[in-house]
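Repro:
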Amino acid sequence: MQYCEHCKVDIKGSHQVCPLCSGIIEQKEEGQDMNVFPQIPTIYQEFNGFIRILLMISIVTTIISFAVNVIVSPDSRWSILVAAGIFCMWIMLFFIIRNKNNIPKTIIWQVGLISIFSVIWDASLGWVGWSIDYVIPFLCLGAILVLEVAAKILKIWVKDFIIYLLIDGFFGFIPIIFILFGWLNV
């Protein structure tokens, strides 16, 4: 047990200073008390090893791709696409970790980010149209399937399941909008 002379209170736990007045506290009894509140690791502490290994693999892959690009085909810049893909993976991983408890929000972010990245890549490669023809419609289809499977596995309540169905309907209308505006070449 610790004691603050200024506040005249006993303090449980192991503190360096008084939580009330930030004054110096003294130890009343021998031994160190256990903390009153448990230390709960943050999501970044929980996945620290995985993130470090993935970061190392990303850096090594980027360096190797740039080296192979310079040696094999110095006139093309395909290694920039590899680096951009790794960068996109890190952005998407960040959103997955931040929204891990809200699956529909995570899926919406993933569909939005992958759609934007695929359109940017398609435009940077000379606009073939593969992003709108294939990636975005299949991405929406995949998101619908993932939401339905997640709802079944997690045993979502009816009121929450309605939100899942509304999001599925939104994803279903995106390819229809592409067809109505004549943006598809397939």
